Amino acid sequence: MPPPKPHVPELVHRHGKPVEDIYEWDWSWPPGCATLRHVFPPDGYPLDYVPHAAKLAVELTRNRARMALEGARDIGPPRIPTSPEDLRTGFYQVIEDLAAGAPKTRPATMADYVRYFALTPQPTLVERQSKDPASADRYFAWQRVAGANPMSLRRIASLPDDFAVTEAHWQRAVGEGSLAAALATGHAYLVDYTMLHGAPATRYLGRQKYVCGARGLFVALGAELLPVAIQLEPGGGVVTPKDGVTWAMARYCLQVADANVHETMEHIGATHMVMEAVGIAGRRQLGDEHPLRKLLDPHIAGTFAVNDSAKHFLIAPGGIVDRVFAARIDVAVSLVRAAIDRFVLQDCAPAREIRARGMDGAELAFPYGEDVVEVYGAIERFVTSYVRIFYLDDAAVVVDDELRAWVAEVGSPIGGALRGIRPVETVAGLVEWMTNIIHIGSAQHAAVNFPQFPYFGWGANVAGACWGPPPALDGSATEADLASLMPPWDCLTLQADTVYLLSGIYYRPLGTYAHMGDPRVAPRVVAFRKDLAAVDAAIAARDAARLLPYPYLRPSLIPSSINI
Predict the structure, then answer these.
(1) How many domains does the chain have?
(2) What is the pLDDT of residues 479-503, one digit of tens each?
(3) What is the DSSP string of 210-252?
(4) Considering the entire predicted model, what is its pTM?
(5) Measured CA angle at 64 (ends 60, 69), to 5 deg
(6) Using CA atoms, how far apart are residues 224 and 141, in angstroms rounded to an integer?
């Protein structure tokens, strides 16, 4: 049966159209993902957003000119956005223009990838690892706990049956203790990307791209995580940090696998697509003056517009993801849907998710976990104070027909199509519902979005694809084989320019609310901002002692919504 029709009088018509015609579901692309069929101007890019995008476009254009790459073609001045309509039709146009003129050759040496940072700020990773190449393993491991994807690492008590790491491997890699002891005492950790094994990969300029279904074993020595072993395919051989160039190639292959999972599942699927589903259902079912609508709207502002740009250009066939990443675009969007299928909105509180991965209570330094729990706590305290203004007891929640219809449509297979949605029937359940929504649209998106440029901007650290085959495990790998894994200039600049744009707009920080209506809300907002400022200061203090900076969950750097 169709999803329930909007039943609130003020929702019947807006802008001369029935609300169901304005907020109309579309599941065509990515297949099975709930998106908005048409984005009408009120939900498009706001006028004051345009200068932010234009500034970054100018910076990218100047950076490219300063790079002076051999073999680059002059394609004329790139198009800089000057209006919301420019962004609607060509959000990524400047990136496409610049890529069209970039050389299709690879840099002469791996060190040449640093040339990308001609005017754009050089990430701390680039500076430190370039000065001390022997530290590469430390920074590789750091990206599991504080990189663009801190969501894949989990603590293990046993190895997968087909991941044959032995005590000899352990001693070769670690040189102290034992694998058995590390597993028994909770010091062993795993990332597992075997879901990518056998994934069809694309070709570019006649060259095959590759992605591996890799696994990585890590150990916590005190508070620091270090790599122990990598396997590039299920049941395959094991490589350790003592294996020279073969290890460096395996490490890069795992980075590529992580990037493919990060972009499709943790970033697009578990934040962008989730918030689109929640937001469309909210617009359809909550009246304009409903207190939950007032709370929701700031946290979906800009989401429909940026997602529309993404589905038509970024993750479209032939788009940026299709060219930069290894997995064929139909495989990539299948991973997006897979992320949604495993996502349960009411179970996504960070403390719960971290506990499910065994990442709680360890002495291991885990910047994402340390910071996200504090930010979530501040959001939860604000939401509790807000909700209790309007819902004095559980009975008030039960009789709210608009809330019931919203929750039902988020979970409807012909609505938001999110799995595992449960009725919201208590004040505590409503606080959890709203807190989790705000968390996903603000802090969680910040955690998987803003570290992209510091890590994905450097081709020697990671790319969307391996551009040569993974290493043979016979010890014959050479530096030339390692270099062959890395991207040509046009795909590297397409990748780096994209993440520079995506990591560069901090529009409307968390805690920004206007026109909330009820005067009782204002003091709660003031208290929320003070709470966020205290969390910000605490994170800044911790960050000073970290291996690399991790500012991405400082509330002052978290937008209220997914607007980039």
Answers:
(1) 1
(2) 999 999 999 999 999 999 999 999 9
(3) B----EEEEEEETTEEEEEEEESSTT--EE-TTSHHHHHHHHH
(4) 0.95
(5) 160
(6) 9
